[in-house]
Write a structure and sequence with these properties.
- The chain has seven helices and no strands.
- With about 180 residues, it is an all-alpha fold.
- It has one domain.
- Keywords: Membrane, Transmembrane, Transmembrane helix.
Length: about 180
């Protein structure tokens, strides 16, 4: 059922005029790819800096100060990365929705987002009490570690998409 839904989405996107515009342009895919990689790299770097601070690295800088400096840039980069990711759909709409590695990547992004929501809504509520402590509370450190694992998984999946069988390359180990 899920595969059928993804194939239907592919069909709808393939019939879109934007698909023709982007797929017929020699430069569209490389430009979109560069924007996606640079913005995701910026976001990923920001998240790693923040998560490592939440693990206790860089204790001489307050967590709140770290968040103030990083989050605005990181979320802006995340928005651009998502926009460029959506444009990827229009460049090759028949590829991404049916690619299992892409589906894992989307699942990891959702899980990382839920983890971030949980952290900001509940775990950082009492940040004033521990901001400059030697180590943040264990629950915060666990969430930061989970965040690192999830975002690394997103990056790994993003790279593996290029080598998956739906792109004409056949690496049996990647056929999930």
């Amino acid at each position: 059922m899920f595969d059928e839904m993804m194939k239907s989405l592919s069909g709808l996107l393939a019939e879109n005029p934007l698909t023709d515009l982007l797929s017929l342009s020699y430069y569209s895919f490389p430009v979109v790819e560069v924007v996606h990689v640079v913005t995701y790299g910026t976001f990923f770097g920001g998240m790693m800096m923040l998560d490592f601070r939440l693990l206790g690295v860089g204790r001489f800088i307050s967590t709140q100060q770290t968040m103030r400096h990083i989050l605005n840039i990181a979320w802006f980069a995340f928005a651009l990365a998502n926009f460029s990711g959506i444009v990827f759909f229009f460049v090759t709409p028949w590829e991404y929705p049916v690619n299992s590695i892409f589906q894992y990547k989307m699942l990891l992004i959702i899980l990382a987002g839920l983890n971030a929501l949980w952290m900001h809504k509940f775990l950082l509520a009492d940040i004033d009490q521990w901001d400059m402590d030697v180590l943040p509370p264990r629950k915060v450190r666990v969430s930061a570690f989970i965040s690192i694992c999830l975002w690394v998984g997103v990056v790994v999946c993003g790279r593996l998409i290029a080598y998956s069988s739906s792109y004409g390359l056949n690496y049996p180990a990647l056929n999930f």
